[in-house]
Write the structure tokens for this entry.
Amino acid sequence: MKRTLYVSAATAVVLVAGGPVAVAAAATADTARTVTSAAAVPADVTAEAAAAAALKKYPGVVESLDKDGSVWHVDVISKDGKGHAELEVAADGTVTEENRDTDENAAEHKDLIAAKVTAEQAMKAAVAAHPGQVWSVTWEDDEDGDAHYWEVEVKSSDGKTWTAHVDHATGKVTQSDSDSDDNDDNN
């Protein structure tokens, strides 16, 4: 309590002695501190940059990538199909390995590894068809395990969310659906 009184009394003396000049100087210092802090905040990493950063940390093939707030979750399968890593890419591009598994069944991933079109290429194809930002990409197959494709979610500047299916062999967008009333708060 006494300390609070001393600090308050000292502040009052400075304000009375310095008057408006002291108040303006204090306000300018706070504004400068705020501007500096805002300038130091990095821009969000794009899906493409998150995929590249994850592959640099754990070489292989991206199986899925999705954004949760400002963090990207990226699953990467090793090129031999036996390894799997779950990575997080922060807004500043820092990659953290959350989990690594080295005893995967390579047969489960053979179609993904053999795909002619990568997740990165599927993202480019989806954005070419529906301009915007990629929010997720996932390797999918039908219930029989016969048809394989990339499912890419793109958020456009007009608020629409497009889900595009990209063929794993040709890179062509084979199906697109729009959700025009998107209320997803994961941005």
